[in-house]
Write a structure and sequence with these properties.
Chain lengths: 358, 378
Amino acid sequence: MKLIAAMSGGVDSAVAAARAVEEGHDVIGVHLALSSNPQKYRSGARGCCTIEDSHDARRAADVIGIPFYIWDMADEFHAGVVENFMSEYKAGRTPNPCLRCNEKIKFAAVLDRAKAMGFDGVITGHYARTRDTEAGKTLHRAVDPLKDQSYVLAVLNREQISGALFPLGDTEKVDIRLEAERRGLAVAQKPDSHDICFVPSGDNAGWLRERMGSEDGPIVDQDGKQIGTHKGAYTYTIGQRKGLGITIPTSDGSPRFVLKIEPVSNTVVVGAREELAVTSMKGERAIWCGPNIAPGDHRGYVQVRAHGAALACTYRFDGTHLVADLDQPLLGLATGQAMVIYEGDRVVGSATICETAA
Amino acid sequence: MSIYLDHAATTPMIEPAIDAMQRALRKIGNPSSLHTDGRATRKDVEEAREVIAQSLGCQASEVIFTGSGTEANNSAIKGLFWSTPDKNLIVVSAIEHHAVLDPAHWLVEHEGAELIEIPVTDSGVIDCAFLRDLVIRRGGEIALISVMSANNETGVIQPISTVVEIAGSIPVHTDAVQSFMKVPLNFANLGLFAMTISAHKVGGPLGIGALILRKAFEMPALLHGGGQEREIRSGTLNAPSIVAFAAAVSANTYNGEAVEKLREKFESGISTVAPHARVNGQSSKRLPGISNITFPGTQADFLLLLMDGKKVSCSTGAACTAGVHRPSHVLMAMGHDEIGATSSLRFSLGANTTEEDIEYTLSVIPEVIEMAKAANSL
């Protein structure tokens, strides 16, 4: 097949491209420049948008022996990912920009252009697997549970999955590094990226405050009584305990947690830990990574964070919303997070959480 | 098989230059040393200097070897500016190479200089009336004027003798990196103060250029040290590259008429296979080998990827440090909007380009355009 390898400059995408070449595919490497001012978004070489990263990607392509190009996706990335990140926080939700980037950039902008230019698909260094079934290609967890990235890929629809290749899903990360060494790739020991690539410090709240300003507002308890002042509601996260700056203790001395963020009134509601418990969630913008789900209740697992636990649940699609009822309550769940449904290791689909219930 | 149509970026070294360089690499002797070996190398360098001087109509002592065309341009812009401390205005054309534009902007930021860019017409030629008016109004403030001899992206030849005539006593520099050995150039007859040339555009090696600087003209050095090259450019002379540079000049086989004929074939072919394409600067006098073409509805980096996939090497023009393609400031100055300026490719033909190269390139263009359009519409 003729394939485009999305090369971030990290070890994973380099090995993924090398494996595809070894399998006999006709591969070209493309590095996505995601910032019009590359040094702006990250100062270290750990992400995917610095000059150093584009250099590392180029050197990896040289070693593998494939053509290499840089595509300017800065405008698409800013509009589709960075601005969305800000507007979601502004609306009191907690977005995951990596999912958004996969959905809007890597497997939309890149895959579509690749197909228009006569390529069959896109290779990435994500840790996930696909399987060819009678119902088409399906998406599955990677064998390395610590690295599994199927959660951030659950925004891909069937067509996108059919054009995606994840050559690393069957291998543990530690072996990928060894393989990179063996292949002579200089990025073998490059540290993994963990934070959001455009928030270099890892300080999301500070980053948001810098760009969106901060308007002080009340922190109230569940009775609506003000017990503190916050520095911009959008910089808080549901379930957050630290950094609230509340000096009035609770009657029993127990800690308070953020229960709710009300962007319109710029209010943060806090309360006891047990108030965070959620037993049911509802999601909008449902996407099926494989066959559409049949009407009625199904048993499966729901995951709400990239490296969170898979929680046993009963789920259904009511024609508009994806609903999951948990067997055991979950503490702290924010709207805007993605709910991803699994059946065993297969990713059924995902939706963006818009409502939770105790 | 690969079709190389990027000769304006760099062109292959010619055999006599490779031979001369190999011989020189085997010799010992620093040209600045006083013993027999040093003198022998010095002799090679000075003979090379004379060859280059003769090809340009300047005196040998006016040839100052540099490490690149970029270095020569930087030396000229900064040196000419600093040599007239009572004048603060720099005038350059809007379509200069970054090796001229960036030192000029640097002087604005770090030395408080004022910079005025001469606009160009939509056919890519500088606006002489603008320059004339500027010199009449503010001639006494101008430290230097720099206008390239021919543009590197479009090949459009600039009216240097008119610029010199307008300038009067104001020093004029021209970046002749693209036009050297392509069209007749005579330093003395043009009345220039300074000129930049580079070896690797004329069949010589990479990493050697020259600043041609009027004999009696003193200017501050950028590199200090051993005092070589009129104390303007210290550093051990790169004898093998200098010798190869001269060999490339004296054995030059570039046939402008033949190259221009091939370009005509290419451009008339383009009008058939891509009727919506436009040749930038087509109505102007151009260097024989450069053809800059806008393909509406496409994006240059997709075009390049697809052409490269068909084994044709051409160029998108400028890229930033990270390698991201940027809209061409040259095409923007000629009136293109940002979209037009990012949907153009430069094809540059060289001494060894053949009819078959042109025919093959034309044969792949329709499919490339179609795919690039499809990708760009997403």
